[in-house]
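Record type: monomer structure entry
Structure origin: computed from sequence
Chain ID: A
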Amino acid sequence: MGNRVYLQVRRVQFNGSRIRLYLQEVPLMRAAKIAGMLMSLTLSGAALAETSGYGQQLEGFTYPHALHKFSFQSQGQTLEMGYMDVAPSGKANGRTAVLMHGKNFCAATWEDTIKGLSAAGYRVVAADQIGFCTSTKPEHYQYSFQQLSMNTHALLEKLGLDKVSVVGHSTGGMLATRYALLYPKQTEKLVMVNPIGLEDWKALGVPYRSVDQWYERELKTTAEGIRAYEQKTYYDGRWKPEYDKWVDMLAGLNKGPGHKVVAWNSALIYDMIFTQPVFYEFPRLQVPTVLMIGDADTTAIGSDIAPPEVKAKIGNYKVLGKQVAQMIPGARLVEFKGKGHAPQMEDPQGFNKALVSELQ
């Protein structure tokens, strides 16, 4: 019968650019054909990993709801904010929730939260802030949380919204805090979801990184780096396949034709986050406030360059949530045990149930 080579191949399964093989025994000639097929599939997977990316305003990436654009003047230039305005899918309660995304997130990443709030009767507005995602990336802009708050307030005025509940995640939590401080009469309730800025990193000894240094760092952004950072810091070592599209979103934006201006705006925004703490003003909040904290979160800006003794004491959300809840008059603390930086993405059902309850 001669020598035979056996190769086990039952099926091929794709997960992003990774390929899983299920094999069975086959004769030599057929094995050679299959080897050629697998080589072709491997090259296709590599090609998928090297896509040209998305446009400067995330053109090519699909949002879960209709995307609108708000055009306005700011700092001597015309800018656009992309936003979703989603009507209630359940019985309307006449209330509106405004969702503010984080630094490594977009309005689209609120997808599950929008679904839950809409079903509970809320109108939901989720905007991309200037410098992010589907919004303008100016070549020159003086970033501040006050400016971003004013931009958002202008959008809400255009939509005819006077009273809203503001929900901010991560960097959006810092922005939501500033918004509530600037517009307390317009803020029915403030909800911060794993906000960064629950501590002042620079005061705790984290070294300063210049805008130019941030820019050089951002130019090196890759899908692999994004995934590794998020898995370690955001999800406490866990990963779900549904997170992959958000990695693709960020990586595509950072390797598209506008990647340099994207990186520059990202650097300016990091400088804003690091140098403009809201921490010292938490006691001044005059609106009903809820902290929703995944207590396994370890996010801290600059932790990658912090001395070991500094790194060891920052980003401890088990402690930070409780400390800040004591600083804010009348604040409530809702903890998600064992969850990381994005409980709304790790446990959408549990998060939505808690959020709707707290907003009532």
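Annotation 1: Residues 11-49 form one domain.
Annotation 2: The beta strands are 11-15, 18-22, 68-74, 77-86, 96-100, 123-127, 164-169, 187-193, 289-294, 332-336.
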